[in-house]
Amino acid sequence: MKYSLQNIILEIHNKEEKILSQSKRLIDEAYEMTLYLQDLLFSVKKLIIEEGFKDDVEEMHFFRTIKPQILGKLIYYNKIYRIETSCPVSNGKMYYSYFSTQLANLKRDYSEQVFNSDFYRYYRSGRTDRDEIYFKRGNINYHDGLNSIVFEIDSSFSTFYDYKVARIISNELLYTYLLTKINPDENPDVILQNSESTKDIFWTDSKNALIELVYALYASGAISHGKIGIRKISLIFQILFRIPLGDLHHAFHRMKTRTGSRTAFLDQLKISLEEYMDKDL
Fold first, then answer.
1. Residue 148 and residue 15: Cα distance in Å, rounded?
2. Nearest to residue 254, comparing CAs of 208, 199, 213?
3. What's the rounded Cα separation, in Å, for the pair 20 and 12?
4. CA end-to-end span of the chain, whole Å?
5. Is 235 in contact with 186 (CB distance < 8 Å)?
6. What is the average per-residue pLDDT within 14-30?
7. What is the mean pLDDT of the chain?
8. Where is average pLDDT lowest: 21-30, 146-155, 182-191?
9. Which string of DSSP letters, residue by residue, matches the chain?
């Protein structure tokens, strides 16, 4: 298959990095990513319909892991665009009330539609014994009382449960985004996102590099004598640079097992600093 999970994640990541480097408003970033992901999903759909899958294993892998990465990000960015374009003010009580309501709606929807389902527990546990039922086309059981959206999906490009996985991915990203908007304890300076003085500050290296830095600061106890958690540190950087870091835990574990140096960014920081010092000698 032309599209592997690694290639899809890398392609989306590169597009996010490119848009971020242009220092656009969050509304513009979300809109551009929505259009890009919509086109990407259409391209993948065209390929699948034309070429199909070589076997059941490839089909199940696609609908469990590949398609949800695209659709999940698409749902996420589209939701951000809708939230940001409806926000009544840039700060103050109405601002916090608005985003608090959005967070409450997300939690309620997550609880009612996702969290309490048997499928959620199946997916979170990492089980694969029912993948043939959940992630092969043509196996939708209408006796389960499924969400009405099932009647609108294209059965040639969906199993319905790939949409469920996409919702899990998008909701987790939205949860982090909304926390950076409303939680003073974990968001010590929300004004950074709206300040004219910081609009030109943005992260130009990879997200993995920033996550590596976040974990290094956490592990060293360099911030607040080590009494501040990893999520709080990451939120500060996400606010400052206006960049979503996604699932830190999984990103960190990928770093632990990657080939070559596991601290590639920190190694490069040391080299860059030493070279800068040598210029003054």
1. 33
2. 208
3. 12
4. 54
5. yes
6. 79
7. 82
8. 182-191
9. ----HHHHHHHHHHHHHHHHHTT--HHHHHHHHHHHHHHHHHHHHHHHHHH--SSHHHHHHIIIIIHHHHHHHHHHHHHHHHHHHH---SSSHHHHHHHHHHHHHHHHHHIIIIITSHHHHHHHHT--TTHHHHSSTT---GGG---GGGGTS-TTS--SHHHHHHHHHHHHHHHHHHHHHH-TTT-TTGGGGT-GGGTT----S-HHHHHHHHHHHHHHT-SGGGTS-HHHHHHHHHHHHT-----HHHHHHHHHH-SS-TTHHHHHHHHHHHHHHHTT-
CB 171 within 8 A of CB 211: no
Residue 142's pLDDT band (cuts 50, 70, 90): low
Count CB atoms within 10 A of the CB of residue 183.
17
Q: In 3-state terms, what secondary structure has residue 205?
A: coil
The lowest-confidence range among 66-70, 147-151, 200-204 is: 147-151
Q: Cβ(161)–Cβ(63) under 8 Å?
A: yes
* Confidence at 197, pLDDT banded by 50, 70, 90: very low
Q: Tell me the average pLDDT across 198-225.
A: 84
Residue type at 186 in one-letter notation: E
pLDDT at 173: 85
CB neighbour list of residue 84: distance below 8 Å, 6 or more residues apart: 26, 27, 30
Residue 280 has pLDDT above 60, yes or no: yes
The CB-based long-range contact list for 64-67 (8 Å cut-off, 24+ gap) reads 64/131, 64/134, 64/135, 64/162, 64/165, 65/5, 66/3, 66/4, 66/5, 66/8, 67/41, 67/157, 67/158, 67/162, 67/166
Query: Is residue 2 over pLDDT 90?
Result: no
Spatial contact of 137 and 153, defined as CB atoms under 8 Å apart: no
DSSP state of 235: H
